Give the backbone structure.
Amino acid sequence: MTDNLLEVENLHTHFFTENGVIPSVNGVTFSIKKGEIIGIVGESGCGKSVTSLSILQLINKPGKIVEGEIRFHDKDLTTLSEKEIRKIRGNKISMIFQEPLTSLNPVFTIGHQISEAIRLHQKVDKKEAKQRSITLLSKVGMANPERQYHAFPHLLSGGMRQRVMIAMALSCNPELLIADEPTTALDVTIQKQILKLMKNLSSELNTSIILITHDLGVIAEMVDRVVVMYGGEIVEENDVYSLFENPKHPYTKGLLNSTPKIHQLKEKLQSIEGNVPTPDQLPSGCNFQNRCPFAMEKCREISPDLVASSDGSSVRCWLHQEKEVVNV
Amino acid sequence: MTQQVQVKQSTIKAPLLEVKELSKHFVVSTNLFGKPKESVKAVNEVNLLLEKGETLGIVGESGCGKSTMGNTILRLIEPTEGSIFFEGQDVLNMTRAQLQEMRKEVQMIFQDPFSSLNPRMRVFDIIAEPLRTHKVANGKELHRRVYELLDLVGLDQSQADRFPHQFSGGQRQRIGIARAIALNPKLIVCDEPVSALDVSIQAQILNLLLELKEKLQLTLIFIGHGIPAVKYISDRIAVMYLGEIVEMADKESLFSKTRHPYTQGLISAVPIPDPSLREVSEDVILEKDLPDQRNLPKGCSFYSRCPFATEKCKGEKPKLKANEEGHLVACHYPLHA
Ligand SMILES: Nc1ncnc2c1ncn2[C@@H]1O[C@H](COP(=O)(O)OP(=O)(O)OP(=O)(O)O)[C@@H](O)[C@H]1O
Ligand SMILES: Nc1ncnc2c1ncn2[C@@H]1O[C@H](COP(=O)(O)OP(=O)(O)O)[C@@H](O)[C@H]1O
Ligand code: SF4
Ligand code: SF4
Ligand SMILES: [Mg+2]
Ligand SMILES: [Mg+2]
């Protein structure tokens, strides 16, 4: 037994398309404790969403989890039937996606949709469900919840729709909330409200959150621990303070150096040369070699493992595997 | 208002661009007789002076009128009211020939490099198109110029025969930039050129723009959602709210001596990529969403969200005024007064 709520171990998710196999996620391993907020960060196409969809068992054909375990309360979700997983999804584990409009049904009022979500997993009558929905709407900061209960999704702004999604996600008091780029489509002012809301809810209800984003600013403000992904793999993992203070993987460093900062004086931004690779273009050896300023002979041949060090960090880079032995 | 513009004008000797009382109102519904019933004031009485060689950043929430303003300046859409002068020439009253000439000097770079490039054209032809249309070069000279442009934006000559879909987002943005600088323009309006790009690629494009600006002595208007990126690239920044400029200043001054409550809220909402500042960063949270743009308040447009609003703000619209340092703000009770 561990005190982990969720453990993802050696997850491989591939898509078997007409043009060949796309290895989107390759050997991802991480875990999350009760009440913890972890962040998964990386640029587009690095496998963040495929990882979260894999956890929820929402990978559809031609995609498939080809290897790995996803243990929730020590139960492997990959072995459950669709019926069993439905009892967990949207109940003990809920999710919020980037574009709230596509996840809401345009022909029903938001109140109706939240009530239905409540009644799907809890034995309450319509009146009680409505009451709970209104309470949730006010909890997520909707002004006039009684009136908004009757509003249709398209009449709401992006920020309000995202609040509705959060209300729905919270309707069943989930133990784990997976939020995939929940604020990417929103203005910073609204993003701030939504993030604050999520953080308060997590501390109030002890909900664990996996927050997926490409924005290091959001990571820095929200999470306890960070998982950095590149090319379908985890390249670094650490607690948030150490990661920003002492990034180890050249990709993590590159990401930090290429992020413009408003609180710092003008310094030339460093960029990472080259392009973000797609999974079918990954080289043999280290995935980051084409863009890495430190690439060596060895990096072109053998791909490094994710190695944990005694300071609590894990890094996938030849520079750090050998050094660790000396440093420890 | 004119007085304020003059304050600034005295410091800007020969403006490249001058925008006076520019408005664009979109009619969103009409009555039975086809007369406008409701309209959105996307841009409302905006004044701007742009100095040669500077980069003016424009920030504000989605829908505040940034793109509409950019498009109006380029005459991609016709303004409802106001005037625009480019190098002293009245843009809205130009002859066709004059407008044609101006179109060479003022270019645009868009957010989505994919939809702004013709998918059926090879990169060579995409970049050559403006040179051909304006009959600037042909034959050998055209080839030389296109290859030179590819080089300037960091693309390889061997890529000239490919189609846009064979490039990544960042590379496509480079193609868009090569096309925009092909005619040696004086002014480029960049509408969110990096918003759709990954962080590491964003930095490449921002640095490319800075480099080209120096090399080619460009003047830029840089519209952006991402406030840190706008701060990085701009000399001066204008903050827009509901179609109006509510604050405009040199970037240092805008961030260190913020004067408008909206700007303060906007800046404090930007997440800082440094967890050690998590607890200390002061929160000025703008609680409410934007009001309905069809029914704007008659006083200060920020009234409904402003933590400092008074009765005066409700009834009387504050004018954009400069302090001694030329820092413009439209607020009855500016901060850092
Ligand atoms: N053709 C149009 N017809 C009606 N309304 C329009 C039209 N174009 C823009 N608007 C409205 O004008 C306002 C300003 O739009 P604009 O596109 O300039 O905003 P923006 O600041 O560029 O926003 P974003 O950050 O989302 O790009 C919005 O309310 C928008 O809905
Ligand atoms: N349904 C699918 N079919 C084929 N490839 C897919 C599918 N979904 C995702 N991929 C590929 O897997 C990779 C990882 O995608 P994703 O997890 O969505 O990235 P992100 O980190 O941006 O969320 C991408 O290259 C993407 O193209
Ligand atoms: S293993 Fe080599 S190429 Fe990969 S990140 Fe480390 S130094 Fe760079
Ligand atoms: S004029 Fe009044 S309402 Fe408007 S920003 Fe200033 S203090 Fe706020
Ligand atoms: Mg994604
Ligand atoms: Mg726009």
